[in-house]
Amino acid sequence: MRTILLVGAVFFAACGVSEAELNESNDVTAEEAGELGTSTRSYVTFRHDLYRRCAWPRCGGLFVRDINRASTREEYVLGWDFSQSGLSEEVQADVASAAGGELIVYGKLGHTQSNGFRSFVVTSVWRGMPGVAFADTDTFYKVEEKAIRCITAPCPTMEATKLHTTQKTLLNDVDVSRAARTLVDTNWLTYRVTDGEALVAGAVVNGAQVGAGTEKVLAASQVFVKLPDMTRSCGRPLIPSCPAGQTVIWARDANRCMMPAGCGGGGACTAQVPTCDDGYELMSWTGGRFACTQYACDPTFLID
């Protein structure tokens, strides 16, 4: 039997609510068996009301439903209420124009208005990678890095919490390859997951056999990045002085910041310029041993 020692674990208990049931605003989050309501906040996906033929406001709004729920009941709402979100007008416009399945929205049902209908009160929003779809059978998780000391391998370094539950799974790795289209920076995308700034749709699967145990991997079919994606300050790095015939080369870190990586040059570079899938924009910089042009495809919603 494998033994895992958890070092520095802290448990919280207050008024019968566990740490896992509190969100970033310290609001109580609805549990797995619960449903949408006006008193507890939920993580929801949505679809536009496109096919019913009746007059506004009875038709033309949104159908929202909880994720990871035993019940898949949808609730009709007029639209998004951003009054409690703190989101900029630009982000609000992006959310309002998004297609169904592109977002995870955290919030609660608003109170019934004089017309007999209500909106969905938004607290936070996450946007999925363009051109990528999650499966109906996927589970939604939030991941955190954990300081764990082990005496046997494999040793987990992360913990995945199933949204709307207190169910936690220790992980050895996160695989975002299925959620990343051509030339997407998987270093950045993985970091967004492991630093808790993204939500993941996918499944926990068995990975490599290590020692007497098997690694646990969260295989992501879609990654939802929190809006706005706040790139940490890149600062003002020290730029090296390069000898004659060489130039400064650059590399992107996990926050998409450009950092000097030394000097390079003198090699042959390809003149072919790649193209990005719809929903992405081509980024370029000078890098690598021979100071050739490097490329990445960033989601357009990060740049607009």
Question: Can you describe this structure?
Answer:
- It is a single chain.
- The chain has 304 residues and is mainly β.
- The chain has helices spanning 89-97, 186-194; strands at residues 4-6, 13-14, 17-18, 42-48, 62-66, 75-77, 80-81, 103-109, 120-128, 139-145, 148-150, 158-162, 168-171, 173-175, 198-210, 213-226, 247-252, 258-264, 280-287, 292-299.
- The strands form 5 sheets. Strands 4, 5, 6, 7, 8, 9, 10, 12, 13, 14, 15 and 16 form a 12-stranded mixed sheet that branches. Strands 1-11 form a two-stranded antiparallel sheet.
- A hairpin with a 5-residue loop joins β17 and β18 (258-264).
- The chain is globular, with a radius of gyration of 22 Å.
Keyphrases for this structure?
single chain; 2 helices; mainly beta; DDB_G0275255-like; disordered N terminus; two-stranded antiparallel sheet; 304 residues; DUF6748; DUF6748 domain-containing protein; signal; 12-stranded mixed sheet; globular
Using the alpha-carbon principal axes, give the shape.
Answer: globular
* Number of separate structural domains: 3
User: How would a crystallographer describe the biggest sheet?
Assistant: 12 strands, mixed
Model regions low in confidence, pLDDT < 50 over at least 5 residues = 1-28
Strand content: 35-45%
Would you list the SSEs in sequence order as H and E?
A: EEEEEEEHEEEEEEEHEEEEEE
Kindly provide the radius of gyration, computed on alpha-carbon positions and rounded to a whole number of angstroms. 22 Å
DSSP, total strands: 20
Oligomer classification:
single chain
Ends distance = 52 Å
Number of helices: 2
The assigned structural class equals mainly beta
Q: Write down the overall mean pLDDT.
A: 88
The level of helicity is under 10%
